[in-house]
Amino acid sequence: xxxxxxxxxxxRDVAVSxxxxxxxxKRHPIHDSFMALPCVNERLLVSIRGGLLGxxxxxxxxxxxxxxxxxxxxxxxxxxxxxxxxxPRGGGNAEAQRRTVERVARHLGVSxxxxxxxxxxxELFGLGRTFxxxxxxxxxxEFSEEHTRAAREIAGPLLVELGxxxxxxx
Length: 170
Known about the structure:
Elements: E1 4-8, H1 11-24, H2 31-35, H3 40-49, E2 51-53, E3 56-58, H4 61-66, E4 77-81, H5 82-85, H6 94-108, H7 116-123, H8 139-142, H9 145-161
Parallel strand pairs: 1-4
Antiparallel strand pairs: 2-3
Helix pairs in contact: 1-3, 3-9, 6-7
């Protein structure tokens, strides 16, 4: 009787978030190996491409996401996009947020009235242990052309499959 809510985010934004998270968390298992990379540029490339850091393997964007896509076929789960959930405060759309909140509530078997939905929407966006900025499309300001090429190479078809791009050669 367990219900699963799987939240996916643009893999490019996840790569940027992962880079900042590992850099910031000194107790992270790969922090030291990650910080031993020569520069921020290389750290972000490893977050995109994956690779061996010390004795640990960091998965590529594509490999990381493919682990979760099976939830689409599970009748006890619902996949939602982060971008549809954060609403205007995170750079998203209020109507998409409302539809997504209602969809998650239905999936969980929770009834929400017209007064409750706005308070849920307001509480969805904010700082937390793994919440740095939460802005949609933040990757655009951190990716160089090299990062963009690497993401296209590693995850081009995935970005189309998830609806983040219309063409794998974006």
